User: Which sequence fits this backbone?
């Protein structure tokens, strides 16, 4: 039997970030007898998706973290890897740092090299540089690398227009929707009640967020908003799903604001469709984003969403999302969240499907892209 072609996807770690979740959605829905995914990561930590990847037939490889100050060691390790694993398609999802694996792939004459934009970045203001110097240094390196990424790639993909314009400028690129299995997210009152009972959230107003505990997600502001909501509506809880380097810092801040006991830190989870059922509103005050898959998921669940206006409006596939500036006070954010409640949860399936966010259809398109381009280089 003919073996499937294998595509190497490049990530930092395989936890539940937006890009990782998007690729896993596609992976579950492609014809794996035609196309198989393997993964190259840059952390020793075992990611939440790794067990599933192995079950689906994928391989996971590890290299040391990329150090932009001293990349020679990384290139040496990458070259050793590529000599042992002669892929014809490398699909990199690490934004500006895609420069490094794609440059190595180009030097090894790998014919199909895809750079995939998933996010933008924060502006280097003086206050940001002073308050978070480590984050500011990362932003600086991202800015230096971004102009070189597209020169190493043969194809440019993006989750949306804002991320694509940021990383690729005026160079044409293809938008690959952050598609999901829409049917899994449709609101069910029964699932809602089961979830609330499981987490002791009966008769509570539940504010929710899903994301990595990192600076871009803007957790300090999120907690300030929730504190205002709690002041206005005492029966309120905040549900946070995810993990990451700032988790301890966020918990400490919650303690100092005296709201720790009103927050459920649920960690990294696999039952996201069920968790979304029991939320009443989704809050997303990120400093910057591309096109977050979590907001597609929340809309599929019929949730009302309040998001920062730094996020591209193209994510508003339905009328359930409202944008507000981060310069507005936390009181206004809290008021905006509470004023829209209660409401009737809508089934947004058809709207999402029409806009290309149903993964069953989108996966076929991506699969065909791989097959067609692989065939051209086999001739």
Assistant:
């Amino acid at each position: 039997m003919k073996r499937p072609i294998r595509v190497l996807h490049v990530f930092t770690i395989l936890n539940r970030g937006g890009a990782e979740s998007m690729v896993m959605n596609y992976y579950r829905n492609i014809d794996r007898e035609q196309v198989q995914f393997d993964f190259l990561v840059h952390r020793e930590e075992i990611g939440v998706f790794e067990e599933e990847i192995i079950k689906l037939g994928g391989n996971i490889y590890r290299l040391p973290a990329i150090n932009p100050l001293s990349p020679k060691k990384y290139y040496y390790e990458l070259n050793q890897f590529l000599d042992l694993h002669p892929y014809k398609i490398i699909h990199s999802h690490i934004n500006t740092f895609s420069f490094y694996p794609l440059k190595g792939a180009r030097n090894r004459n790998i014919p199909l090299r895809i750079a995939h934009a998933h996010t933008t970045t924060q502006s280097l203001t003086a206050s940001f540089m002073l308050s978070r110097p480590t984050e500011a240094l990362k932003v600086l390196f991202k800015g230096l690398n971004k102009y070189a990424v597209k020169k190493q790639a043969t194809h440019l993909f993006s989750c949306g227009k804002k991320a694509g314009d940021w990383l690729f400028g005026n160079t044409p690129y293809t938008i690959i929707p952050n598609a999901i299995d829409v049917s899994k997210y449709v609101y069910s009152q029964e699932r809602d009640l089961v979830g609330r009972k499981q987490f002791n959230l009966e008769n509570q107003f539940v504010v929710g967020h899903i994301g990595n505990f990192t600076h871009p997600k803007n957790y300090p502001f999120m907690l300030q908003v929730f504190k205002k909501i709690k002041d206005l509506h005492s029966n309120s809880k905040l549900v946070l799903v995810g993990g990451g380097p700032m988790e301890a810092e966020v918990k400490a801040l919650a303690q100092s604001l005296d709201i720790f006991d009103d927050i459920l830190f649920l960690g990294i989870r696999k039952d996201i469709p069920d968790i979304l059922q029991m939320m009443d509103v989704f809050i997303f005050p990120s400093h910057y984003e591309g096109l977050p898959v979590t907001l597609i998921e929340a809309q599929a669940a019929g949730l009302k969403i309040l998001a920062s206006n730094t996020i591209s409006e193209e994510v508003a596939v339905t009328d359930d999302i409202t944008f507000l500036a981060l310069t507005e006070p936390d009181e206004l954010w809290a008021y905006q969240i509470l004023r829209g409640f209660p409401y009737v949860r809508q089934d947004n399936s058809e709207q999402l499907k029409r806009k290309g966010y149903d993964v069953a259809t989108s996966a076929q398109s991506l699969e065909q892209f791989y097959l067609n381009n692989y065939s051209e280089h086999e001739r």
The radius of gyration is 21 Å. The chain is about 40% helix and 15% strand. The longest helix spans residues 133-152. Residues 122-129 have pLDDT under 50 and may be disordered.
